[in-house]
Amino acid sequence: MASLRLNFSMLWLLVVLTVHVTEAVRKTKLIGDEAAYESKDNMVSLRSHKSSTAAGPEPGDQAEAFTVRTLDGEFTYQPGALRGPLIIHAFTNKSGFLECLWSSESSLTSLVQDLPDSTHVLFLSLDDSAVSDALWMREQLQRVAMHSKKEVLSRLHFSPMPVFTLGNWIPLVLYYWGCSSRLAQAVFTSEGWHMPVVIKRLDARYDWLGTRWGQRSYQLMDAGDGCEPSASLAGAVAWVSEGNCSFFTKVQNMAKSNASGVLVYALPGNPIQDMNCVGDECNTALSIPASMVHTEPSVTQGLQSGQLLYVSFQYSPSPSAFFCIDHQGALAEMGGFLYPSFSFVSWQAQWFDFYADLQSKIQNPAKVVSVFDKVNMQGEKGAVATVDLPLGLSDFNVLELDASLSCPGKRDMSCAHWDHTVQLFICCDQVGPYCNAELGRWITAFRRGIGRWLTDVSPLLPLLDGKRCTLTMKTVPWAMPWITSLNLRFSIGNGTADGAELLHPFRVMQLYSGGTFDKNYNKRYQPITFSVPASAKKVELYAVITAHGSDDNNCGEFCVTSHHFQFNKVFNNTLVFDSAGTPLGCTKWVKKGAVPNEYGTWLYGRAGWCDGLQVDPWRIDITKQLNMSASESNTVVYFGLFDGHDPNPSKDPGYIIMSSFLIFYK
Ligand SMILES: *[C@@H]1O[C@H](CO)[C@@H](O)[C@H](O)[C@H]1NC(C)=O
Ligand SMILES: *[C@@H]1O[C@H](CO)[C@@H](O)[C@H](O)[C@H]1NC(C)=O
Ligand SMILES: *[C@@H]1O[C@H](CO)[C@@H](O)[C@H](O)[C@H]1NC(C)=O
Ligand SMILES: *[C@@H]1O[C@H](CO)[C@@H](O)[C@H](O)[C@H]1NC(C)=O
Ligand SMILES: *[C@@H]1O[C@H](CO)[C@@H](O)[C@H](O)[C@H]1NC(C)=O
Ligand SMILES: *[C@@H]1O[C@H](CO)[C@@H](O)[C@H](O)[C@H]1NC(C)=O
């Protein structure tokens, strides 16, 4: 009872915490300016991008050896010498984003605490101030590491040499890969000035204020600390000091005062911060843009003396701030940072560890059947292959899907923009009750082409009962192309940890599939009566369930749903998607293969899935819940609930994708 009550209060907390996330998701699931629509134009431009001749190293190319001076002596990279990955970061204080990344305690802490033990980081500066930058960067991390995790410092290397003096290939990668990197700036002008004043800015957190600055020029008006509404700001950008009240209060007051946007300036000596809402504030949607900047004497003086000042907003291209060398010595991209935090570095490094582990698992002995080898998956047809299964498959009791999804080009920017469900269907010998059953499911990443996953689908081995099997992998027909590879890996497992004998799945029975998650959802499911085959020693429930869509409760993608299989009217087996809608629910899956640093809201928890990840089957041994004698019968029924009740959305119901089976072992 106690634990039940605890669960309810935790759920309640979760709902409170998630309102903000789910509200914002509908507006900004996709991040990045070019990320717009999956049009034909897009695909054409991607193809031409692909065929252009190489002008420098690309992701996947092997990194060559180099040596750079560091504050402690020198750092040498020798292919094969490091056991783990190397992250290379080029700092510039011309970026408000990087200034904040390096000033925020939580950002620095996430590097110190969460960087895997395998990983080294080399810190560089793009500017003439490289010596003081390197000393400052080291000081920032030393301060945080001293009282928590000193050990990490031995894997952090700081170079006092500006990037343009390195004389090796590193600058080429930083500049050549920089095509999507840019500095966000505010530009001030006034009639009396000869030159505009251009300063760095950091826009408010992506999922708090979705609204972006327009292309035009705005009048700038002083509004004090912004803690009270102002009278007459109609259409202007409010110039507001930090402090005295929250960022939310300032932006809300300025919106009430009819400002077009807000510039919050840091008090002298303070860094630019990542402006965000806190707690309950996040339940109120605000619809004007806001950015943080440093204060600027000419702007302050101009406003004080009653000069007319104008501000506009621009981006300037800049070199890449990050790239990586993975465990195998290959160059790799870092992906996108949704907000200024070293968490994104730690996540990418965690993924490299996952990938190295996956590569070693793939070396384990197995009978490998290649299905797709870099095949284009697109349109109604998807990717289709017919394979001849080798003889003797009945000796194996383990079947793993080794699947990967990459992009038409080598860079992430050539990847499909949206997260879509990918399903693999199988049909052996063109007949049989199992034809076109679902063998595997994945969700595509937002514009990252690094995903590779090993999924254990051993219970579905009976679906491969035949000589020739046709496998079809598809996503929605309107998605941009993915390049898919798939191997079936057959092997012999070791049995359970307690030394139980090895059992083979010999028959599967299809149960229920999903559907529209509306008030009639559960009315569609009738009990199924079945008997256990005579030779069966064990019965398992196997289900792959994901929830999608967005009704008025954010169901199914971002709401907590529960899925129940009840046997013989008394035994409930329940799967709850309790991390759906949490702000960071999918980040904890990076270590298990979720693609990090995607160009979209990959980090929110979702209902049974994450972007850039396989959907793991839910498996429960139900032998003890059944009457195992072949002459007796059993019943099973499924139902799915939202918040403990039948779903009852008032608009746009979501939907459940489900395949579920009983697996009989002997
Ligand atoms: C970065 O620039 C800001 C002003 O733009 C300044 O206050 C800060 O001290 C600089 N930081 C470093 C490390 O140079
Ligand atoms: C904060 O409030 C105090 C008291 O009203 C005021 O004197 C001060 O100027 C305010 N701070 C800023 C940065 O506006
Ligand atoms: C803001 O604009 C609305 C609509 O034009 C107007 O009714 C309101 O009085 C304005 N508020 C302020 C503070 O200027
Ligand atoms: C089985 O056991 C061997 C030896 O302990 C081990 O090397 C292997 O990885 C195990 N295989 C599986 C699939 O667990
Ligand atoms: C199983 O779930 C049903 C429906 O929620 C409920 O009526 C029943 O009491 C549950 N049984 C057990 C044993 O928990
Ligand atoms: C089948 O098993 C259920 C649950 O253990 C039990 O309640 C029921 O009586 C059994 N039915 C038969 C026919 O044995």
* Main sheet record: 8 strands, mixed
Hetero compounds: 2-acetamido-2-deoxy-beta-D-glucopyranose
Basic shape = globular
CATH class categorisation of the largest domain: Alpha Beta
The stretches of 5 or more residues where confidence is low (pLDDT under 50) are 1-28, 32-51
Number of helices: 9
- Secondary structure class reads alpha+beta
Name the CATH architecture of the largest domain: 3-Layer(aba) Sandwich
- CATH topological fold name of the largest domain: Glutaredoxin
- Report the average pLDDT across residues: 91
Sequence of strands across the biggest β-sheet = 7-6-13-9-10-11-12-8
Account of the protein in words:
With 666 residues, the protein is an alpha+beta fold. It folds into four domains: 8-181 and 319-332, Glutaredoxin, CATH 3.40.30; 182-317, Glucose Oxidase, domain 1; 362-500, Jelly Rolls, CATH 2.60.120; 503-666, Jelly Rolls. The chain has nine helices and 32 strands. The chain has an eight-stranded mixed β-sheet, with helices on both faces. α4 (105-114) crosses α5 (130-146) and α4 (105-114) packs parallel to α9. The longest helix is centred in the N-terminal third of the chain and has 26 residues, at 2-27. The radius of gyration is 28 Å and the shape is globular. It starts with a helix and ends with a strand. The model is unreliable at 1-28 and 32-51 (pLDDT under 50). One 2-acetamido-2-deoxy-beta-D-glucopyranose binds at residues 566, 570, 572.
